[in-house]
Design goal:
about 80 residues, mainly alpha
């Protein structure tokens, strides 16, 4: 998200340099050159995450309790 003009002014006025990793710079430049990827990200987020509570389903409960392996007492002291 771009910073506000006020924050840019304060950073420049105080001489604060902001570190940016190579990976962050690459992603920022890549997304600026490929705006269709941003739209694809939003679409994917809408599919998986942005859902109303009524659209979500309750998890199914197991029909039987988990069974033990049966080898709990095989060792001897």
């Amino acid at each position: 998200m771009p910073e506000s003009r006020l924050m840019n002014f304060i950073r420049n006025f105080l001489g604060l340099n902001r570190y940016e990793s190579e990976a962050t710079a690459f992603m920022r430049d890549f997304l600026a050159q490929h705006p269709e990827e941003v739209a694809s990200q939003r679409k994917g987020r809408g599919i998986w995450w942005d859902k109303d509570a009524r659209q979500r389903t309750e998890p199914t409960l197991p029909k039987t309790a988990p069974k033990s392996g049966g080898a709990e007492y095989t060792f001897r002291a």
